[in-house]
Amino acid sequence: MNAILGIIFHSLGGASSGSWYMPYNLVKRWRWEIYWIIGGLFSWLIMPYIATVLTSPGWQDILSATDSSTIRLTYILGVLWGIGGLTYGLGIRYLGMSLGNSVLLGITSLVGSLGLPILRSIGNLGEILPAGDSFTDMLATTSGRIILFGILVLMVGIVLCGKAGLMKDNEIAKTNEGVNSEFKLTTGLIIAVISGILSAFFSFGIDAGKEMGEAVREIAVTNNFAFVSDGKYLFENNIIFLVILWGGLTTNLIWSVVLILKNKTGGDFVDTKTPLLRNYLFCALAGTTWFLQFFFYGMGETKIGNGASSWILHMSTIILTANFWGFYRKEWAGVSKKTKATIYWGIALILMSVIIMGIAKSDFFN
Q1: How confident is the model at residue 181 (pLDDT cuts 50, 70, 90)?
Q2: Alpha carbon 237 to its chain's center
Q3: Do 188 and 95 contact (CB within 8 A), yes or no?
Q4: Secondary structure class of 229 (helix, strand, coil)
Q5: Cβ atoms 360, 165 nearer than 8 A
Q6: For residue 253, which of 82, 107, 27 has the smallest C-alpha distance?
Q7: Which helix (H) or strand (E) covers residue 172, if one does?
């Protein structure tokens, strides 16, 4: 049952992550840095704060009592994750949507799921890294080996989706001049590798901040709170997200302010020639939807853990949702049957990886 609930929660989180940008398409006559920081304030500050206040008993005392090195490390990992998010768009610019997303999400999936387990298996690094399974531990158990197989299936699915994207771009390029005019493979791949690695640091931040989540759990269990099951509290991770997202806010706020000053776009905040109320509301919706991805991720993590399986389930459902939106917007209309078959196979393998993760975390193997 925990595995099923974990898949449902991660699917809701992935659906939120794959959909959050849609409201930004309805923002009118605002420059990027304006709607980005308005939505970001909801993503990285307002909603995490509300979620923590409502679901994390004694959160202020917990932050005060937590070792400063734990908060500092969690925050720094959030800053690095924020840099990964900022460079994401640059990678898409030089590689294109299809290839860029496939490379970036592939790297983030691989690093986020296996980065720490591999490092824990090297020498004495496991003693200084956040606690968790090592790669050796995963190889030693049936569920661990199934998870590794699921990761392999996911990576093949991502490669096929990327291939389908390239095929589509090539077909479109034959009938549209100027397509991929900024395509720079080497530059794009370098940026994509950097962004993909740093974007996975959110997963590392969750591990680094476990002390705070465990403190919330202890209070919830001791006081017989609702939503406590099998010794875990469904919302225990929200306090960790609060600190990680302070780091993400720092990175994005600095960059947005730099752009606002450089481009002199601060007047957009109060420009009555734009639909101000509509713009603010859609930015708030985008930011809130973005935060929901990790709100649900935290719920799923309490059911199946923050190891490779949770991160892969999260990334899989993001990719699936993004592709479904692509079909809804008819981005694949007019392409060849071979290209459609390739994207269908990619999506099928990604769905299969989700099923494999569910099997690996089922009670039968645990």
Answers
A1: low
A2: 15
A3: yes
A4: strand
A5: no
A6: 82
A7: helix 142-173
Report the amino acid identity of residue 273.
K
Cα distances (angstroms) measured from residue 279 to each of 3, 71, 249: 39, 34, 20
Q: What is this structure's pTM?
A: 0.82
Q: CA-to-CA distance for 23 and 6, rounded, in angstroms?
A: 27
3-state SS class at 124: coil
Query: How far apart, in whole angstroms, are the C-alpha atoms of residue 138 and residue 208?
Result: 20
Digit-coded pLDDT (tens) for 288-338 = 999 999 999 999 888 876 566 777 778 888 878 877 877 777 777 778 999
SS3 label, residue 345: helix
- Report the distance separating Cα 318 and Cα 206, nearest Å: 19
Amino acid residing at 344? Y
What does DSSP assign to residue 127?
G
Crossing angle of the two packed helices 68-95 and 185-199, in degrees rounded to 10: 150
Residues in the chain: 366
DSSP-derived letter for residue 129 is S
Count other C-beta atoms under 10 Å from residue 21's C-beta.
Answer: 14
What whole-number distance in Å separates Cα of residue 28 and Cα of residue 198?
31
